[in-house]
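**User:**
If convenient, please work through this fold.
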Amino acid sequence: MSATADHAEERTSPAARLGFQPEQVVQEIGYDDDVDQELRESIEEIIGSELMDEDYDDVADAVVLWFRDEDGDLTDALVDAITYIEEGGSILLLTPKTGRDGYVEPSDISEAATTAGLSASKSVSVGKDWSGSRLVTPKAAKSKR
């Protein structure tokens, strides 16, 4: 029964659905009062440690990027985030859902990801107010054969 319960929990945990793994180093960029604390805690539970803040100066396995329309240029934010991840790493881009303050158009996300050299997955709901897109470098996508 516990194996079944574990698998059920993996399907319902947003962090597990987004591909986070135990012992990953995950850096968080764009933290503010409006972030989804439940998602943050879910990620920390899966990886087994706290998220690294913007001052972390080593490479990470993944970056969680909270981005709102008023935060500036998304392409620049993505290019900056790429410098923090090791080859094969990913960026979880989190943006407010439609109708929320700071909403970012899906076409803007797609254009910024492409310009930054990233491949975007379909956007998924990751909380009450946030949508997430998993972005990977084309090299990372090819090396996952």
Q: What stands out?
A: The radius of gyration is 15 Å.
